[in-house]
């Protein structure tokens, strides 16, 4: 049995909470590793948190300015040489969803020849973490630098991930305040021919906002999984929200259905989330026909519009907690400042853009405590390569 197969088998056979113990044993035996650590990205994407069965036994690592943080941001292995030892920092990523960094210290003579295998092992570890999280809180707890509010707990559990990538596109998203979000949300679902994306701007605060968003997102998922088109998804979700709240609460959602082979997109604009497009060096807002938020009135009909994306386009979606946030002097962030932030981040990968825009927003706001949720989702469109 070769070393990689031994590591893969150990991970697959380990109890959910013992992945690192099993992996550490194999890496010590097969690669002479002296230390093995797993660091998970926290909810705010500011720190890499150590995974341990005993909390608070290791110090978190700052995302910015650290070697492990550089590996996480670049999504490439970063090697540190210290005498006869090499410290390898390897991204732990699953289909574009960046979970953290696996750090292994091993003899330099072993590291050079084993790097490709170690990168593959880090990827297998990521897949096993996703499966293990169904049965243990160990990895979820490791992501927390602070305690989540109950509303935030509900919202994070509702999300599909924070980033994903396929040959046709790359997606990244982030919410603020990460540990105290209310009702803003995003959801996506990829199929062989389509990508469906929902951007939600929740109404209200606290548990009530979270409950409203949970109802709306699950109603949309229920309709989507029944195979109905997005305009009918909006109708069915609208009925579910109205039946529960009778118009007293409602949900603003932007629904998009991308055809992967052509770049044609069907859109239902049911509320306040906005979309801006970066094409070349030009940032412009793309407006759609405004329709009623979900659940505002009984038996609302929705109509889908169409537009197209071209390879190289970047689409950035924001909630009103981004474009309406006020500075201490009262001026709102606004479309011009948002366009400037999008242009300034054009060289970053999609997964890094939301956090960068939210940092810019925090500087405009002039204080660390937002009064409203802020959601940024970035989609880079590459298009599908046609067979010649």
Automatic annotation (TrEMBL):
<dbReference type="Pfam" id="PF07228">
    <property type="entry name" value="SpoIIE"/>
</dbReference>
<feature type="domain" description="PPM-type phosphatase">
    <location>
        <begin position="168"/>
        <end position="381"/>
    </location>
</feature>
<keyword id="KW-0378">Hydrolase</keyword>
<dbReference type="InterPro" id="IPR001932">
    <property type="entry name" value="PPM-type_phosphatase-like_dom"/>
</dbReference>
<dbReference type="InterPro" id="IPR036457">
    <property type="entry name" value="PPM-type-like_dom_sf"/>
</dbReference>
<protein>
    <submittedName>
        <fullName>PP2C family protein-serine/threonine phosphatase</fullName>
    </submittedName>
</protein>
<dbReference type="InterPro" id="IPR052016">
    <property type="entry name" value="Bact_Sigma-Reg"/>
</dbReference>
């Amino acid at each position: 049995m070769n070393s990689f197969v031994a590591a893969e088998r150990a991970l697959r056979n380990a109890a959910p909470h013992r992945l690192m113990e099993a992996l550490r044993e194999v890496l010590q035996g097969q690669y002479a590793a002296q230390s093995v650590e797993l660091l998970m990205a926290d909810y705010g994407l500011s720190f890499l948190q150590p995974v341990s069965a005993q909390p608070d036994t290791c110090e978190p690592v700052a995302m910015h300015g650290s070697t492990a943080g550089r590996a996480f941001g670049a999504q490439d292995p970063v090697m540190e040489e210290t005498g006869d030892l090499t410290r390898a920092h390897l991204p732990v990523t699953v289909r574009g969803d960046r979970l953290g960094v696996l750090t292994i210290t091993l003899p330099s003579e072993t590291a050079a020849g084993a790097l490709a295998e170690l990168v593959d092992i880090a990827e297998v570890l990521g897949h096993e973490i996703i499966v293990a999280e169904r049965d243990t809180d160990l990895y979820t707890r490791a992501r927390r630098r602070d305690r989540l509010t109950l509303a935030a707990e509900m919202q994070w559990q509702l999300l599909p991930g924070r980033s994903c990538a396929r040959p046709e596109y790359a997606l990244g998203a982030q919410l603020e305040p990460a540990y105290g979000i209310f009702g803003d949300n995003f959801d996506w679902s990829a199929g062989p021919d389509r990508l469906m994306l929902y951007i939600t701007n929740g109404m209200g605060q606290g548990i009530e906002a979270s409950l409203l968003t949970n109802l709306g997102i699950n109603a949309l998922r229920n309709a989507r999984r029944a195979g109905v088109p997005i305009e009918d998804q909006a109708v069915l979700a609208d009925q579910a929200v109205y039946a529960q709240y009778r118009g007293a609460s409602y949900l603003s959602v932007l629904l998009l259905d991308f055809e992967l082979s052509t770049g044609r997109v069907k859109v239902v604009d049911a509320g306040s989330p906005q979309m801006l497009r970066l094409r070349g060096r030009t940032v412009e807002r793309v407006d759609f026909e405004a329709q009623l938020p979900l659940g505002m009135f009984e038996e609302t009909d929705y109509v889908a519009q169409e537009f197209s994306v071209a390879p190289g386009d970047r689409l950035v979606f924001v909630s009103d907690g981004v474009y309406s946030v006020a500075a201490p002097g009262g001026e709102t962030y606004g479309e011009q400042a948002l366009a400037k932030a999008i242009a300034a981040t054009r060289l970053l990968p999609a997964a890094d853009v939301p956090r960068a825009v939210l940092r810019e927003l925090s500087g405009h706001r002039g204080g660390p405590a937002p009064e409203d949720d802020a959601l940024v989702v970035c989609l880079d469109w590459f298009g599908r390569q046609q067979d010649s």
